[in-house]
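Progress note, project year one: complex with 4'-phosphopantetheine.
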Amino acid sequence: MKAAIYPGSFDPVTYGHIDIIRRAAEMFDVLIVSVLDNKAKTPLFSVDERVNMLKDVTREIPNVEVDSFSGLLVDYAKEKGIHVAIRGLRAVTDFEYELQIAQTNRLLSQGQLDSIFLTTSLEYAYLSSSSVREIASFGGDVSMCVPPVIEAMMHEKFKDKYRTQD
Ligand code: PNS
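Model obtained:
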């Protein structure tokens, strides 16, 4: 079985991520999309919410599993017996960061975890979860960035935020 992990924050999942998931799922027997539970960051959506969002938007892709992890990616990959990490590259600005992560992971795993990069489809090259969060926080239209179910959850989340600030 050829398996790969697509790790990320997915806060929230965007059409750019979904494009990478679809394409990677065609290349591997199993693709595990895994949400990093990063205790150092305060995300907009909880890990459970992000896992559920990912399950929802990938439910028609049979070989995709959704999971979460904390700690090092290399430890999680070893536990799963997986040797490939998938990452998307939008533009040259992503390259340095991704190269650093990929090389660190190869070093930490003693060559057991390699990275494969898929270039994001051009129509999604401008998309990032952080800009989607910012647009939605001001009540802007994110329908071109995320599926309707995620858009609805974002508006709900920001409605909650405004309510708690009252
Ligand atoms: O969607 P993101 O936030 O760009 O994803 C970054 C991610 C989750 C791939 C990366 O931060 C990660 O793998 N973190 C886990 C901790 C780790 O293994 N660090 C060592 C590599 S620098």
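Strands lie at 3-8, 30-36, 64-69, 84-89, 114-119.
The chain has six helices and five strands.
No further modelling is planned for this target in the current period.
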